[in-house]
Amino acid sequence: MTELPDRRLLLVHAHPDDESINNGATMARYAAEGALVTLVTCTLGERGEVIPPELAHLTGAALGQHRLGELRDATRALGVGDVRLLGGAGRYSDSGMMGLADNDDPGCFWQADVDQAAGHLADVILEVRPQVLVTYDDNGGYGHPDHIQAHRVAMRAVDLAAGRGHQVGKVYWNRAPRSVVEAAFARLQDELPGLPFDKSASVDDVPGVVDDERITAAIDGGAHAAAKAAAMRAHATQIEVAGSCFALSNELAQPLFTTEYYELVRGPGQPGETDLFAGLGTGEAS
Ligand SMILES: [Zn+2]
Fold first, then answer.
1. What residues flank ion ligand 1 with Cβ within 5 A?
2. What is the Cα–Cα distance from 109 to 43, expressed in whole angstroms?
3. For the chain, N or C: smaller number of CB within 10 Å?
């Protein structure tokens, strides 16, 4: 216990690739600063759509195993070594997009018992004792069942862990300020002719977009932009990176943000934070 670094950050994500897209710069920055960065990913993303034609044969469990390898490569690029799959790899499977019959699969994460899944996460919380936890908002950022469930499980696990002896100091949700996203899409229009993508996504395709005043923290990861891009490239089945943009399997270009944004939902803090550990006195934390 005494060997843990002073500052400890836990991120809870639904699928391999979500960590790099949402928090890659933040993870790389805190890892470089010596904080313990722990990632818990809830599923292996077995229902993801595969981009490269040469990997299109990968589906189901084979795709899950491949994506686990991508996750290892991505987190290595971020300098993050503590990566866990909720309940162990393969415990919960990808639920697929909302409304599909996949959501009814009894083994899928959407069908998981929230308390039981949160119990697995609480075990991790009690082990690494994070001061800060990052996850999605109650709509999972954009409505994917696994992202909504990750939110529910993360928030429940914070309560369970508090009852078992560790209070997470601060909880943040991943966010993107509307004005920043709109400006980035405007710039993207100029870049688009030079990119391998024909069309642009839109502001509505970006998870977690809210009015600017709801943003309480901005983490400048500009110094770690290359690590974030490398991590996203490692998820080659899911992401194509080009210049300062990327696309998912829909081939629609969207901006790659190296400053990442958060909304504080539990714990001390005030608007304008540039450090997720601000106000926690983590230098003396035990
Ligand atoms: Zn996802």
1. 14-15, 18
2. 7
3. N
With CA atoms as reference, report the closest residue to 182 among 122, 258, 128, 257. Answer: 257
| CA angle in degrees (0–180, nearest 5) for 224-226-232 | 105
CA distance 86 to 79: 20
Q: How far is the CA of 106 from the centre of ligand 1 (A)?
A: 19
Residue 34 has pLDDT above 60, yes or no: yes
- Residue 132 alpha carbon to ligand 1 centre in Å: 21
* Gap from CA of 283 to ligand 1 centroid (Å): 33
DSSP 8-class letter at 227 = H
pLDDT of residue 281: 82
Whole-number Å distance between alpha carbons of 185 and 264:
25
Find the DSSP H helices in the chain. Answer: 18-32, 60-78, 114-128, 145-163, 178-191, 225-234
Which of left, alpha, beta for 253 (phi over 0: left; psi -120 to 50: alpha)?
beta
Alpha-carbon gap, residue 173 to 170, rounded angstroms = 10
Q: Summarize the annotated binding site for Zn(2+) as residue ranges.
A: 15, 18, 147
Ligand 1 center–CA 18 separation, angstroms: 5
Relative to beta strand 82-85, strand 132-135 is unpaired
pLDDT in tens, 219-254: 999 999 999 999 999 999 999 999 899 999 999 999
Torsion of CA 198, 204, 206, 207, to 10 degrees: -150
